[in-house]
Amino acid sequence: MNDKKTDLAGPGISNYNEVEKVIPKNYKSLLDKKETQKAISKLKNYFEEKLSNELNLIRVECPLIVDKTSGVNDYLDRDGSRTPVEFQCGLGLEKKIDAQVVQAVTKWKRMALKQFNMDIGEGLYTDMRAIRKDYFLDHDHSSYVDQWDWEKVITKTDRNLNYLVDTVKKIWKVYKDTENYILNEFPALENGEYENLPDKLKFLHAEEILDMYPDLPRKQRETKIIQEYPAVFIIGIGWPLKDGYPHEMRAADYDDWVTETETKNGNIMHGLNGDILVWNSVTKRRHELSSMGIRVTKETLKMQLEMSNQKHFLDMPYHKAILNDKIPLSIGGGIGQSRTYMLLLKKAHLGECSVTVWPDKLKQICNKNNIHVLQ
Q1: Which of 29, 48, 52, 74 is the catalytic position?
Q2: Distance CA 345, CA 249 (A)
Q3: Which of 11, 52, 169, 293 is deepest in the core (most CB within 10 A)?
Q4: What pLDDT is recorded for position 7?
Q5: What is the pLDDT of residue 80?
Q6: pLDDT given at position 74
Q7: How far apart are alpha carbons 193 and 21 in whole angstroms?
Q8: Could you confirm whether 74 is annotated as catalytic?
Q9: Does residue 123 come out as left (phi exceeding 0), alpha (psi in the -120 to 50 range) or beta?
Q10: 132 catalytic residue (yes or no)
Q11: What is the DSSP string of 233-288?
Q12: DSSP class per residue in 166-218
């Protein structure tokens, strides 16, 4: 059970001896560095156009830094283990602004729906850049994060599992269309050694996966299930499951993970959110692409903050806006950009697609296995 508890927060692997074991051996990139940059540019443009068309979104600018007192920064979890980079700014001000670098713009996007006058069924997406300093840096986790963060206005009647599943299916269609496009543009990617994405996602509730593997921690359960189903959407992340632990810690003030959704085998399932996970045939590991969900109402916000011992958040402007019905009901999520490039361009390491800092130990492991990260 201690393994389950330590597995709830903090993605990735925990030490570089383990990283060395899982890094692909005898690796050879299917595209050289110049071709990779050309492919990233084409892939990015195509994916964004498809995503905006499928979900009825427009592109908007988003912040890199936010006011600490606004409450709109993303804390990623609810145990306080991942904190944002903070600094003061405003030369000449008597009291400088307490600023934070965003970890994601999950909450800001919901506020932005009102700022940009989005109607029901309309939404926005952003080219989000963030810093997450508390990640363990391995082959697919970086302190530098790039995402397509999106958000869409919905009605009260849309707040159900069917609407969530339908939206996820649209996103999966974007992935499949983009994969077909990039394989056509760069035929070297279709080499037969690595598998392409399956046509359909498997939808499973976190409670169902726990029933299948009751003694395994979360990441090991995920690894098992995606070896059986190579693309899965795991529903209900945040609510404590029957073993007493949530599938993973999830922040209490954006996704709705308390709402009852359905009953299976006599068990009431909770949660209107989830993650898209796939099997990465290059790394032979789980690969997370997206986290998303229907957002909290004022009722479920209060419930989740109480369960998380964070009721003091209710005094912040973002939370007050929800309580006072000042911002619309919504659904939204984040889709990893470099994660997507890594998967569809069949790379062994995130650093082949994005430029950031990596530990010398990790670079040594990569060089030994013919994996060359960008610098």
Answers
A1: 74
A2: 30
A3: 293
A4: 58
A5: 73
A6: 84
A7: 21
A8: yes
A9: beta
A10: yes
A11: EEE--SSB-TTSSBSS---SSSB--SSEEEEETTEEEE-SEEEEEEEETTTTEEEE
A12: HHHHHHHHHHHHHHHHHHHH-GGG--SSSPPPPSSPEEEEHHHHHHHSTTS-H
Single-letter code of the amino acid located at 229: Y
* Low pLDDT (below 50) residues in the chain: 1
Structure tokens at 193: 């050694």
Catalytic residue among 149, 179, 275, 352: 275
- Could you give the CA distance from residue 336 to residue 289 in angstroms, rounded to a whole number? 6
Provide the pLDDT for residue 219: 87
Identify whether 288 is a catalytic site residue.
Answer: yes
281 with 344: CB under 8 angstroms? Answer: no
pLDDT digits (tens, 9 = 90+) for 133-156: 998 999 889 999 999 999 999 999
C-beta atoms surrounding 263 within 10 Å: 9
Task: Return the domain boundaries, the chain.
Answer: 2-368
Active-site pick, 29, 142, 147, 354: 147
Q: CA 159: distance to chain centroid?
A: 20
- Among the listed residues 141, 17, 20, 23, the one whose alpha carbon sits nearest the alpha carbon of residue 82: 141
Q: What is the pLDDT of residue 270?
A: 97
Per residue in 153-171, pLDDT (tens digit) is 999 999 999 999 999 999 9
pLDDT at position 14, please?
74
The pLDDT score that the predictor gives to residue 1 is 47
Query: Both ends of the chain: CA-CA distance in Å?
Result: 40
- State which CATH number among 3.40.630.30, 3.10.20.70, 3.40.1190.20, 3.30.930.10 fits the domain covering 2-368: 3.30.930.10
354: annotated active-site residue = no
User: Counting beta carbons within 10 angstroms of the beta carbon of residue 224, is it exposed (0 to 12), middle (13 to 18) or buried (19 or more)?
Assistant: middle
Per-residue pLDDT, 11: 52
Residue 65 Cα distances to 70, 74, 88, 265, angstroms: 11, 12, 11, 46
Spot the catalytic one: 78, 82, 110, 132. Answer: 132
